[in-house]
Amino acid sequence: MKTILIVEDDKVLNEGYSSILSDDYRVLSAFDGQGALDILKKVHVDLIVLDLIMPNMNGQETLKKIREQNISIKILILTALTSQSIESSMMGLGAGAFLRKPVSGKQLSAEIKKLLKD
Q: CA 30, CA 6: separation in Å to the nearest integer?
């Protein structure tokens, strides 16, 4: 079974995404960037669902640190931000997909399936 790490500081959204995905995947949760990095040191993860706006270490900083550590992993960015420059910079860091919030469970599941096929 594939493992997905949800990195979302909003507990309601984190739990909602986890609930949607838990029938098809092993789901782990982190509520900030450092928590995500700590999990990645201990557990093999196939895909990260990463929020951009988080306290302490935002999603962009988290993705940069993941890439600096040469961790090769598929990343799905979720954000309420609409800036084209942010999307471009995230894709430049190796994000596999970029979805704008709010995102439906169906849309989230479809994008994850697409990313995991590659």
A: 6
Can you tell me which residue has the tokens 């999603």?
Answer: 59
Q: Tell me the domains of the chain and their CATH numbers.
A: 3-117 (3.40.50.2300)
- Conformation bin of residue 79: beta by default, left when phi > 0, alpha when psi is -120 to 50: beta
Give percent above pLDDT 70 in the chain: 86
Rounded mean pLDDT of 29-43?
96
Query: What DSSP string describes 15-73?
Result: HHHHHHHTTTSEEEEESSHHHHHHHHHHS--SEEEEES--SSS-HHHHHHHHHHTT---
pLDDT digits (tens, 9 = 90+) for 60-73: 899 889 989 888 89
